[in-house]
Design brief:
It contains 13 helices and no strands. The protein is elongated.
């Protein structure tokens, strides 16, 4: 799984400055009128505002228990509610919270991530995967696409699984397109690089990946011979002509590890 910390997937949790709280969670006059129309009572109003402001910031509705106390206190103060005002119980008030989320979606013009949400972002991920390899980059592309469409973000694990699946499919397609043009002799030669010859301690591919060493005359000659050995294996250019240069560099970096 790609680390969520390396992606743009929005989350709550960190301590915010007063300026950050005001930027992210300040309540507008329009929002104040909305909450008064949609709710009645301190706890319902604080709950509604908490759902509204976190949905605006995150792009999805978090579980109320995940919202930091700092944020809830700021929202309460902003609406002249006591900081001790409790949020509604998410288990007992399921229907009420469902209605609040529907009102908020209507207000924001957003839509819920559907059961078949993959159809919304799979084409975008697939196109991006032709030039990108890092799952983090592909997840960020999916997030950007959903945000632009004002569709609520699904769970991070949903994006991570979809990206992994599409990325594998794209790589398999690229592999087939490259190997389809190989002659039998070329295929045999490449396969042989992975074998460990009798009496040897490593495969030919492992030797090819060895560093040439310090920049001495001896090592420069060795490096020249090394490059000649690489060039003699096969000319890769015709087979890679249709693959993006960035993708080739990414694959090369993986092989070098």
């Amino acid at each position: 799984m790609a680390s969520i910390d390396r992606t743009a997937y929005p989350r709550l949790g960190k301590q915010l400055s007063t300026s950050e709280l005001e930027t992210l969670y300040a309540i507008t006059d329009e929002e104040a009128r909305l909450v008064r129309r949609a709710t009645n009572g301190d706890s319902p109003r604080l709950t509604f505002l908490t759902l509204l402001k976190t949905r605006q910031y995150l792009g999805y509705f978090p579980a109320l228990r995940e919202v930091p106390d700092q944020v809830i206190r700021f929202i309460a103060d902003s609406f002249d509610l006591l900081q001790s005002t409790p949020l509604l119980d998410a288990e007992i008030k399921k229907k009420t919270l469902f209605r609040y989320r529907a009102v908020i979606r209507s207000h924001l013009g957003g839509t819920i991530y559907p059961d078949d949400g993959e159809r919304l972002i799979e084409p975008v991920i697939r196109t991006a995967a032709l030039t990108m390899s890092d799952p983090v980059d592909l997840i960020n592309v999916a997030i950007e696409s959903l945000v632009q469409a004002n569709v609520e973000l699904p769970a991070y694990s949903t994006l991570d699984r979809l990206v992994g699946h599409v990325r594998q499919q794209v790589h398999e397609t690229l592999y087939r397109s490259v190997t389809a043009g190989l002659s039998e002799a070329q295929s045999v030669r490449l396969d042989a690089l992975l074998e460990v010859p009798p009496g040897e301690s490593g495969s030919a591919i492992a030797r090819l990946k060895e560093s040439p060493g310090p920049a001495t005359l001896k090592h420069i000659r060795r490096w020249s011979a090394h490059l000649a050995e690489l060039d003699a294996i096969i000319d890769p250019k015709p087979f890679l002509a249709t693959i993006a240069h960035t993708k080739i560099r990414q694959f090369a970096a993986e092989v070098a590890r």
